[in-house]
Design brief:
Blueprint: H1 11-23, E1 37-40, E2 55-58, H2 60-78
Antiparallel strand pairs: 1-2
Amino acid sequence: MSRAWAGGSTRQWRNQRQRALDRDGHRCVDCTAPAVEVDHIVGRGDGGTDDLENLRSLCVRCHDRYTREQTRRARGSKRPREQHPGLI
């Protein structure tokens, strides 16, 4: 793993993350709970950037929900869901 990635924590990313949290008042933009996560609105894998306009502050619960939704969509676009053999 490159040092630039290092778990997503470069100085530039930490600064951008802090700017997003400050902008949103350290509150989740969805439910107003205390925000501790910063999420990309358009994921980097989908061409999103680390620009402040593409970042949102989220609580752990909302961030987990968005991550599950993104994972489900990504898996769904690559292959159809297989049925369990015992349920056919």
